[in-house]
Amino acid sequence: MSLYTQLVSKLIFPLHERLKKHDTVHIRKDLEKTQWLSTQELKTLQIERLKSFLIDVEQHVPYYQQLFKQLKFNPKNVSSLDALKQLPLTAKPLIREQGEQLKADDAVGLAKFNTGGSSGEPLIFYIGNKRVSHDVAAKWRATRWWGVDIGDTEAVIWGSPIELNGQDKIKLARDKVLRTHLIPAFEMSPVKIDGFIQQIKALKPKMLFGYPSALAHIATHAEKTGQVLSELGIKVAFVTSERLYDHQRAKIEQAFACPVANGYGGRDAGFIAHQCPEGQMHITAEDIIVEIIDNNGNVLPYNQAGEIVVTHLATRDYPFIRYRTGDIGILSDAQCQCGRGLPLLKEIQGRTTDFIIAQDGTVLHGLALIYVLRALEGIESFKITQHSIDETTLQIVKNQQYNPENNAKIQSEFKQRLGQNVQINIEYVSEIAKEKSGKFRYVISHVTIV
């Protein structure tokens, strides 16, 4: 660890978090102790924290005060994780319906978030300081598994407008001190990628962070154009927000000469699991309880595929209890060779975002179109299908808040990205059909990237 990194990780960043009233440093230090507990010790810790969490929620969250009363559920009697089965599953429609009733009556400083999730259904929810502290600490712990720390130079290949539109002077100054460099990843034209590669070469970052599809696309372009990225000294490439495919992992590792560390989670569900150097996906068990359910909502045993359901124990200000992620996964009861007792997420299925190809050949991340729709009211869910370079269809399930004037905005925004001569078909449907796998795909392109 360089002297500058030590200064940032041990002094500057802790001071930054304290000023924001976050307990990140203390939580990270605790996580680095509890990760070595045995499976049974971690389960005992989870039960204790689940009980305290549910007691707190009953006292302060109107929706759960009513629900617990109706179910005659007493959180003080919680003695095992099976107690969760007494509570109903939570999905996006319920969060939309209850909204304000899910806020704790003593919550302070809640931040509003908007996400489409894996199904393409927009969702507005809130995050409090406690959850932010725990999520940042979980990610921080995972980066340290790979020998990198806050303060090490990081290149973030990203595309979320939450980050891109939030780069005010204070955040830019903070990122500069922390040596975090944000590189927008929506547009992936050859010229843009050449620019990304030059930035990465100039930075010589210790770590990369971003979409696996974007990093793989950069790696492929570098290989085709003979640009060498293997001598930069990058220690690890962290990927998240999409399913990581084996061919993407191989391409990234070959191009950047570093291992790829997968991460699984989201703005709604939190940081659920991170990959350790032994290759296993460890669940952040101190904060998150994961269940796998079948189509009828029944909890499945280890090694069986089903929907991933999450209870986040640091969400007391706006609880996520038995939250359906819409993703398909498998839990494992195996032990990792790294020695950590944290439970393992054996497999994550589905969950991918396709690239879209514009008429001029520009490669766009699917999120470039998704964020156009997320910004509009009245859209329950959607699906974008690119049939050819000249035609794209958008299916929308709308509600009463939908404004017919949105049509013109969608047409304009889509054509700005795809080309003015592209035919944009907008269809209103009552339901978005699932794929054969049972998974929703909200962007599908039938155009091959050359």
Shape summary: globular
Total number of strands: 19
Strand content: 15-25%
CATH class of the largest domain: Alpha Beta
Count of the separate structural domains:
3
The largest sheet, given as strand count, sense and whether it forms a barrel, is:
7 strands, mixed
Please name the fourth-level CATH homologous superfamily of the largest domain. Answer: ANL, N-terminal domain
CATH architect. name of the largest domain:
3-Layer(aba) Sandwich
Q: How many helices does DSSP assign? A: 13
Mean pLDDT: 89
Spatially, the strands of the biggest sheet line up as: 4-3-5-6-7-8-9
Oligomer: single chain
SSE-based structural type: alpha/beta
Radius of gyration: 22 Å
Please name the CATH topology of the largest domain.
Rossmann fold
Given as residue ranges, the uncertain stretches (5+ residues, pLDDT < 50) are none
The helix content is: 25-40%
- Give the termini distance in whole angstroms: 41 Å
